[in-house]
Task: structure prediction
Amino acid sequence: MRITYFEETDTVSVELSNNPSVETRELNENLYIDLDNEGQVVSIIIEHAWQRADMREFCYQCFPASLES
Result:
């Protein structure tokens, strides 16, 4: 996964897969998803990201799967 913030356009790109995009769907005027040829989401684009999300901080957490059976 790769998350890129483009300050000049105030846009965030969240790339979920390296598969090529074959279709872009507009969910609203500020949110788009790119789909591969199987209909799976490969990226999410957020326009006006600073206004829509707190771009001052990015936090990533990974919670390991339980090892108990």
User: Anything to note?
Assistant: The chain has a mean pLDDT of 90. The CA atoms of residues 10 and 50 lie 6 Å apart. Strands lie at 2-6, 11-15, 23-28, 31-35, 41-47. The first strand starts at residue 2 and ends at 6.
